[in-house]
Design brief:
Strand content: 15-25%
Number of strands: 8
Helix content: 25-40%
Oligomer: single chain
Strand order of the largest sheet: 1-2-4-3-5-6-7-8
Structural class: alpha/beta
Largest sheet: 8 strands, mixed
Radius of gyration: 20 Å
Protein backbone atom coordinates (compact mmCIF):
# COMPACT_ATOMS: atom_id res chain seq x y z
CA UNK A 1 0.00 0.00 0.00
CA UNK A 2 2.78 2.41 0.93
CA UNK A 3 4.57 1.61 -2.34
CA UNK A 4 1.40 2.34 -4.32
CA UNK A 5 1.03 5.75 -2.66
CA UNK A 6 4.63 6.60 -3.49
CA UNK A 7 4.14 5.56 -7.12
CA UNK A 8 0.99 7.71 -7.38
CA UNK A 9 2.66 10.82 -5.97
CA UNK A 10 5.98 10.57 -7.83
CA UNK A 11 4.55 11.89 -11.15
CA UNK A 12 2.83 14.73 -9.28
CA UNK A 13 6.09 15.63 -7.57
CA UNK A 14 7.92 15.56 -10.91
CA UNK A 15 5.32 17.90 -12.44
CA UNK A 16 5.64 20.27 -9.50
CA UNK A 17 9.42 20.39 -9.88
CA UNK A 18 9.13 20.92 -13.64
CA UNK A 19 6.58 23.69 -13.09
CA UNK A 20 9.06 25.58 -10.91
CA UNK A 21 11.96 25.18 -13.34
CA UNK A 22 11.22 28.35 -15.31
CA UNK A 23 11.51 30.38 -12.10
CA UNK A 24 15.12 29.31 -11.60
CA UNK A 25 17.85 31.21 -13.44
CA UNK A 26 19.17 29.41 -16.49
CA UNK A 27 22.78 29.45 -17.65
CA UNK A 28 24.70 29.75 -20.89
CA UNK A 29 24.37 26.72 -23.07
CA UNK A 30 21.28 25.03 -24.48
CA UNK A 31 18.59 26.77 -26.51
CA UNK A 32 15.93 27.76 -23.94
CA UNK A 33 12.37 26.49 -24.18
CA UNK A 34 9.81 28.88 -25.70
CA UNK A 35 8.54 31.44 -23.20
CA UNK A 36 9.91 34.17 -20.95
CA UNK A 37 12.84 33.40 -18.69
CA UNK A 38 15.21 34.93 -16.14
CA UNK A 39 18.70 33.77 -17.04
CA UNK A 40 22.39 34.42 -16.43
CA UNK A 41 25.31 34.53 -18.81
CA UNK A 42 28.99 34.28 -17.86
CA UNK A 43 31.36 36.29 -20.03
CA UNK A 44 34.92 35.20 -20.84
CA UNK A 45 36.13 37.61 -18.15
CA UNK A 46 34.16 35.61 -15.56
CA UNK A 47 31.67 38.44 -14.97
CA UNK A 48 28.04 37.38 -14.81
CA UNK A 49 25.27 39.15 -16.71
CA UNK A 50 21.67 38.74 -15.63
CA UNK A 51 19.15 39.02 -18.45
CA UNK A 52 15.51 38.49 -19.24
CA UNK A 53 14.58 36.53 -22.32
CA UNK A 54 11.62 35.95 -24.58
CA UNK A 55 12.19 32.86 -26.72
CA UNK A 56 9.74 32.07 -29.54
CA UNK A 57 8.82 28.76 -31.08
CA UNK A 58 11.41 28.19 -33.83
CA UNK A 59 10.95 25.51 -36.44
CA UNK A 60 13.82 23.15 -37.12
CA UNK A 61 16.23 24.70 -39.58
CA UNK A 62 14.71 28.17 -39.24
CA UNK A 63 16.31 31.30 -37.80
CA UNK A 64 14.51 33.96 -35.76
CA UNK A 65 15.04 37.73 -35.63
CA UNK A 66 16.97 38.95 -32.61
CA UNK A 67 16.18 42.10 -30.61
CA UNK A 68 18.47 43.55 -27.94
CA UNK A 69 16.21 45.47 -25.54
CA UNK A 70 17.75 47.98 -23.10
CA UNK A 71 15.80 48.94 -19.99
CA UNK A 72 15.19 52.36 -18.46
CA UNK A 73 17.08 53.83 -15.49
CA UNK A 74 16.57 53.17 -11.79
CA UNK A 75 18.00 50.95 -9.09
CA UNK A 76 18.96 47.76 -10.90
CA UNK A 77 17.81 44.89 -8.72
CA UNK A 78 18.14 41.29 -10.01
CA UNK A 79 16.29 40.85 -13.30
CA UNK A 80 15.30 44.51 -13.33
CA UNK A 81 14.90 44.05 -17.08
CA UNK A 82 11.92 41.69 -16.81
CA UNK A 83 9.19 44.31 -16.17
CA UNK A 84 10.54 46.32 -19.11
CA UNK A 85 10.51 43.21 -21.30
CA UNK A 86 6.95 42.37 -20.30
CA UNK A 87 5.65 45.94 -20.50
CA UNK A 88 7.16 47.23 -23.73
CA UNK A 89 9.59 45.02 -25.65
CA UNK A 90 7.64 41.75 -25.68
CA UNK A 91 4.27 43.21 -26.76
CA UNK A 92 6.01 44.96 -29.65
CA UNK A 93 8.41 42.30 -30.91
CA UNK A 94 6.97 38.92 -29.91
CA UNK A 95 4.49 39.09 -32.84
CA UNK A 96 7.55 39.07 -35.16
CA UNK A 97 8.63 35.72 -33.71
CA UNK A 98 11.76 37.44 -32.40
CA UNK A 99 14.20 36.32 -29.74
CA UNK A 100 14.30 39.23 -27.28
CA UNK A 101 17.23 39.57 -24.89
CA UNK A 102 17.09 42.26 -22.19
CA UNK A 103 20.22 42.46 -20.02
CA UNK A 104 20.39 44.07 -16.59
CA UNK A 105 22.61 47.14 -16.88
CA UNK A 106 25.80 46.52 -14.85
CA UNK A 107 27.14 50.08 -15.10
CA UNK A 108 25.85 53.61 -14.63
CA UNK A 109 24.22 53.66 -18.04
CA UNK A 110 24.34 51.83 -21.35
CA UNK A 111 27.24 53.98 -22.56
CA UNK A 112 29.32 52.80 -19.59
CA UNK A 113 32.09 50.49 -20.92
CA UNK A 114 31.00 47.67 -18.59
CA UNK A 115 27.42 47.90 -19.83
CA UNK A 116 28.45 48.07 -23.47
CA UNK A 117 30.72 45.03 -23.03
CA UNK A 118 27.96 43.04 -21.30
CA UNK A 119 25.29 43.88 -23.88
CA UNK A 120 27.53 43.03 -26.82
CA UNK A 121 28.83 39.81 -25.24
CA UNK A 122 25.27 38.65 -24.63
CA UNK A 123 24.26 39.58 -28.17
CA UNK A 124 27.18 37.63 -29.67
CA UNK A 125 26.39 34.67 -27.40
CA UNK A 126 22.81 34.61 -28.71
CA UNK A 127 24.02 34.76 -32.31
CA UNK A 128 26.60 32.02 -31.76
CA UNK A 129 24.52 29.65 -29.64
CA UNK A 130 20.89 29.99 -30.70
CA UNK A 131 19.06 29.92 -34.07
CA UNK A 132 19.17 33.70 -34.48
CA UNK A 133 19.40 35.38 -37.87
CA UNK A 134 22.46 37.69 -38.00
CA UNK A 135 20.83 39.64 -40.86
CA UNK A 136 17.82 40.54 -38.68
CA UNK A 137 19.22 42.04 -35.50
CA UNK A 138 17.81 45.21 -33.97
CA UNK A 139 18.40 47.27 -30.84
CA UNK A 140 15.70 49.09 -28.90
CA UNK A 141 15.34 50.71 -25.51
CA UNK A 142 13.39 53.19 -23.45
CA UNK A 143 14.69 56.37 -21.75
CA UNK A 144 18.20 55.40 -20.55
CA UNK A 145 17.77 52.38 -22.80
CA UNK A 146 16.69 54.62 -25.67
CA UNK A 147 19.92 56.55 -25.25
CA UNK A 148 21.70 53.20 -25.21
CA UNK A 149 20.03 52.20 -28.47
CA UNK A 150 21.23 55.42 -30.14
CA UNK A 151 24.71 54.84 -28.69
CA UNK A 152 25.15 51.19 -29.69
CA UNK A 153 23.65 51.72 -33.13
CA UNK A 154 26.16 54.49 -33.82
CA UNK A 155 29.17 52.57 -32.49
CA UNK A 156 28.38 49.11 -33.85
CA UNK A 157 26.53 49.46 -37.17
CA UNK A 158 27.87 46.12 -38.39
CA UNK A 159 26.00 44.25 -35.65
CA UNK A 160 22.56 45.77 -36.13
CA UNK A 161 20.28 46.14 -39.12
CA UNK A 162 18.11 48.78 -37.38
CA UNK A 163 17.59 50.74 -34.17
CA UNK A 164 14.31 51.69 -32.48
CA UNK A 165 15.02 54.10 -29.60
CA UNK A 166 12.08 55.27 -27.49
CA UNK A 167 12.17 58.47 -25.39
CA UNK A 168 15.95 58.61 -25.72
CA UNK A 169 18.53 61.27 -26.52
CA UNK A 170 21.09 60.68 -29.31
CA UNK A 171 24.60 60.11 -28.07
CA UNK A 172 27.53 62.41 -28.72
CA UNK A 173 30.03 60.94 -31.16
CA UNK A 174 29.59 59.23 -34.51
CA UNK A 175 26.18 59.52 -36.18
CA UNK A 176 23.85 56.59 -36.70
CA UNK A 177 24.25 55.16 -40.21
CA UNK A 178 21.73 52.27 -40.06
CA UNK A 179 17.93 52.52 -40.47
CA UNK A 180 16.28 54.03 -37.42
CA UNK A 181 12.74 54.40 -36.10
CA UNK A 182 12.56 56.74 -33.11
CA UNK A 183 9.55 57.34 -30.87
CA UNK A 184 9.28 60.41 -28.64
CA UNK A 185 6.57 62.40 -26.90
CA UNK A 186 6.22 66.12 -27.41
CA UNK A 187 5.20 66.31 -23.73
CA UNK A 188 8.31 64.47 -22.47
CA UNK A 189 9.31 66.39 -19.35
CA UNK A 190 12.64 64.56 -18.86
CA UNK A 191 14.26 64.19 -22.30
CA UNK A 192 13.59 66.96 -24.78
CA UNK A 193 12.35 66.08 -28.25
CA UNK A 194 14.75 68.48 -29.97
CA UNK A 195 17.95 66.37 -30.13
CA UNK A 196 16.14 63.32 -31.56
CA UNK A 197 14.37 65.48 -34.14
CA UNK A 198 17.64 67.13 -35.16
CA UNK A 199 19.47 63.79 -35.43
CA UNK A 200 16.73 62.18 -37.54
CA UNK A 201 16.64 65.17 -39.91
CA UNK A 202 20.42 64.97 -40.32
CA UNK A 203 20.19 61.25 -41.05
CA UNK A 204 17.61 61.90 -43.78
CA UNK A 205 19.87 64.57 -45.30
CA UNK A 206 22.65 61.96 -45.50
CA UNK A 207 20.28 59.53 -47.23
CA UNK A 208 19.88 57.19 -44.23
CA UNK A 209 16.45 55.61 -43.69
CA UNK A 210 15.08 57.31 -40.59
CA UNK A 211 11.68 58.06 -39.11
CA UNK A 212 10.64 59.99 -36.02
CA UNK A 213 7.19 59.31 -34.56
CA UNK A 214 6.13 62.17 -32.28
CA UNK A 215 3.31 61.35 -29.86
CA UNK A 216 0.97 64.29 -29.41
CA UNK A 217 -1.66 62.88 -27.04
CA UNK A 218 -0.27 63.77 -23.64
CA UNK A 219 2.21 60.95 -23.05
CA UNK A 220 4.65 61.85 -20.29
CA UNK A 221 8.08 60.31 -19.88
CA UNK A 222 7.11 57.97 -17.05
CA UNK A 223 4.12 56.40 -18.85
CA UNK A 224 6.26 53.63 -20.28
CA UNK A 225 3.43 51.26 -21.21
CA UNK A 226 1.67 54.03 -23.14
CA UNK A 227 4.46 53.91 -25.72
CA UNK A 228 3.68 50.28 -26.58
CA UNK A 229 1.30 50.93 -29.53
CA UNK A 230 3.87 53.21 -31.18
CA UNK A 231 6.63 50.64 -30.71
CA UNK A 232 4.34 47.95 -32.16
CA UNK A 233 4.06 50.11 -35.27
CA UNK A 234 7.83 50.37 -35.21
CA UNK A 235 8.06 46.58 -35.16
CA UNK A 236 5.89 46.43 -38.29
CA UNK A 237 8.19 49.01 -39.91
CA UNK A 238 11.12 46.78 -38.93
CA UNK A 239 9.48 43.70 -40.41
CA UNK A 240 8.89 45.54 -43.71
CA UNK A 241 12.49 46.76 -43.68
CA UNK A 242 13.79 43.21 -43.30
CA UNK A 243 11.48 41.97 -46.05
CA UNK A 244 12.70 44.70 -48.41
CA UNK A 245 16.34 43.91 -47.69
CA UNK A 246 15.70 40.19 -48.20
CA UNK A 247 13.99 40.87 -51.56
CA UNK A 248 16.90 42.99 -52.73
CA UNK A 249 19.34 40.27 -51.68
CA UNK A 250 17.34 37.57 -53.48
CA UNK A 251 17.21 39.60 -56.70
CA UNK A 252 20.82 40.73 -56.51
CA UNK A 253 19.86 44.37 -55.92
CA UNK A 254 21.83 46.82 -53.83
Amino acid sequence: MRLMIILVFLPLLACAIQGRADDRPGTNDAVPDPGRHRRTFTMESGATVRYSLSMPEIEDGARAPLVLALHYGGEVTPWYSMPFLEMLAAPAFEPLGAIIIAPDCPGRGWADPRSEEAALALLRHALDSWPADPKRVAVTGFSMGGMGAWYLAARHPGLFSAALPVAGRPADGPPVTIPLYAVHSRQDEVIDLGPAKKAVNEMKERGVTARLVVLEDGHTHYQTAAFTPALRRGAKWLEQLWETVAMKTDTGGE
